Fold this sequence. Notes:
Number of strands: 6
Strand content: 35-45%
Radius of gyration: 22 Å
Order of helices and strands: HEHHEEEEE
Distance between the termini: 83 Å
CATH superfamily of the largest domain: Nucleic acid-binding proteins
Largest sheet: 5 strands, mixed, barrel
Helix content: 25-40%
Number of helices: 3
Low-confidence stretches: none
Amino acid sequence: MKRKKTAVLVASLLILVSAGIYLYYGVLFKEARNIESETPEYAISASKLVQNYSTDPKKADSLYLNKTIEITGKVTKESDSVIILENTVFCLFKEKINDKLIDNNMTIKGKCIGYDELFMEVKIDQCTLINKQNK
């Protein structure tokens, strides 16, 4: 009877240790995606992207959320690491942007992280500049 209890205890400990290792390496510390090297799943204008989100947010989420997309539009605002296209698409960059880009048409690639209903903006993360067309 004592051997059976010991065997069950050892098996339980092995299962717990295995589950812990899986959670630690498989779930918590997964390597981050490299959006810059990914091929975009969609190429869309900033105004069309916002229109899709304001018309049917659930459908737009199913198409764009957590996907790599290319967005084209006119830069209406900028700060150190943020560009806003058409006053409606918030693009966050990893690094500081040194160029003055206001009023230029841009194509930006990034990961769509959703629609902010309060500000009525689509949020894009891990952005990179693809194309800059002067005024």
